[in-house]
């Protein structure tokens, strides 16, 4: 335990600032403090029904930027400004595509050349199309797009772009990981598929049907429906149908409030089957389920706090010291690796030029706290290990950490190596 605490302190010292740029100043000196920052635009829902997801992303990216800055910032040649800190500029999309496009225009006009977004594949597709057209029309102000959560497979397949890099496993990769567990779950003979009615939710259900037919053709699909995104306030009718179907398992890609309200309604309806989820490990879902979710809610992720690696646990403890409120407990390794890849690529390019950084990022290979990943140049899909966890009470075997102070955490039941999570690509990329 003493070793774990020392490792946590190491990460904390790298990540924490006592005040704006204070630790950064101590380590890097006044010349770096005064350097012109490299501004990164975060375009997310910072108000409205999914504001909690946007704020959670901001905390992750802020912490990642702090870590880069605490070690001296992005080290560029003197002609490029020398060592420069990263600075995140927030733009509120309000959960609307038009607002996101307006935010993109504002960011470009503000001189930002790196855009980050992830929550909503529909928004991602709109931004990607706009960035493609902008970069073609205005090569002097080209923009790089880093995606940490929009997992519609098309974004790195049919719609792949030189300007877009995805750091999350896409929906087909996540579903394949879940299917490794469903394949061995002999208690499941029927499944209910439910998702959000847009490109991502549709892709999840489509892939669930396809992979069930291959991996578990004996499982009957007894429900298959989509619901509006972010507009359903009462999931009781859906929960009633799930219970009445007799399904032993629900498969869903729901996220944010749409997931929390769904699992809460299922608990209140008395549903006792399993939930196979993409995002059931955070943002209120464990607390909403309570004891009813123990042993029954599974989630696939790029990383979980209870991954049995000392460096990983220390990393999580450092994040909780940086953001101690239970409601702020939402840390994602992929967002940290994304920032590491960006800093690495800028340093390798020796420039912040969009094309040069993109070419360097095609070769990015990063590691942090016992986890690692690399960028596949063919389609700009990040390749990394995945894990599947099952919800258990804190303190039970394999569950040292709970989620959001709920008393429930996720025990890792399956680890999938990057080579096994990798999926073929349909990308035919045009390069400048």
From TrEMBL:
Keyword Signal: yes
Keywords for this protein: Signal
Residues annotated as domain Leucine-binding protein: 37-394
Presence of the UniProt keyword Zinc in the record: no
Signal peptide limits: 1-23
Coiled coil: none
Domain of life: Bacteria
Stored InterPro entries: BCAA_transport, Leu-bd, Peripla_BP_I
The family this protein is said to belong to: Belongs to the leucine-binding protein family.
Protein name as annotated: Branched-chain amino acid ABC transporter substrate-binding protein
Native organism: Comamonas terrae
Lineage, highest ranks first: Bacteria, Pseudomonadati, Pseudomonadota, Betaproteobacteria, Burkholderiales
């Amino acid at each position: 335990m003493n070793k774990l605490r020392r490792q946590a302190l190491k990460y904390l010292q790298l990540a924490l600032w006592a005040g704006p740029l204070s630790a950064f100043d101590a380590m890097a000196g006044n010349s770096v403090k005064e350097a012109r920052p490299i501004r990164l635009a975060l375009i997310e829902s910072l108000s409205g029904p999914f504001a909690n997801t946007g704020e959670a992303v901001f905390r992750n990216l802020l912490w990642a930027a702090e870590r880069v800055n605490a070690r001296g910032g992005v080290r560029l040649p003197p002609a490029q400004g020398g060592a420069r800190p990263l600075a995140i500029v927030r733009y509120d999309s309000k959960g609307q595509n038009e607002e996101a496009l307006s935010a993109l225009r504002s960011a470009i006009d503000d001189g930002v050349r790196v855009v980050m977004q992830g929550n909503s594949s529909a928004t991602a597709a709109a931004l990607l199309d706009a960035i493609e057209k902008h970069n073609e029309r205005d090569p002097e102000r080209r923009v790089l797009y880093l995606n940490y959560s929009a997992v519609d497979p098309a974004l790195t397949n049919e719609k792949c772009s030189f300007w877009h890099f995805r750091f999350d496993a896409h929906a087909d990769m996540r579903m394949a990981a879940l299917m490794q567990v469903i394949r061995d779950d002999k208690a499941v003979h029927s499944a209910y598929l439910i998702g959000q009615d847009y490109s991502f939710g549709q892709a999840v259900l489509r892939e669930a049907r396809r992979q069930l037919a291959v991996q578990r053709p004996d499982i009957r699909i007894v429900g298959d429906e989509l619901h509006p995104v972010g507009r359903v306030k009462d999931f009781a009718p859906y929960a009633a149908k799930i219970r009445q179907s007799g399904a032993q398992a629900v498969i869903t890609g729901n996220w944010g409030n749409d997931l929390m309200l769904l699992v809460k309604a299922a608990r209140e309806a008395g549903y006792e089957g399993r939930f196979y989820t993409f995002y059931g490990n955070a943002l209120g879902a464990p607390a909403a389920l309570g004891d009813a979710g123990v042993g029954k809610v599974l989630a696939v992720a790029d990383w979980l706090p209870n991954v049995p690696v000392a460096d990983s646990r220390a990393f999580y403890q450092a994040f909780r010291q940086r953001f101690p409120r239970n409601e702020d407990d939402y840390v994602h390794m992929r967002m940290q690796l994304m920032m590491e890849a960006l800093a690495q690529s800028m340093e390798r390019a020796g420039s912040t030029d969009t094309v040069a950084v993109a070419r360097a990022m095609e070769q990015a290979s990063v590691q942090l706290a016992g986890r690692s990943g690399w960028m596949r140049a063919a389609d700009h899909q990040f390749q990394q290990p995945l894990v599947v966890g099952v919800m258990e009470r804190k303190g039970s075997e394999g569950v040292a950490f709970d989620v959001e102070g709920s008393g429930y955490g996720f025990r890792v039941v399956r680890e999938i190596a990057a080579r096994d999570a990798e999926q073929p690509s349909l990308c035919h990329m045009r390069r400048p």
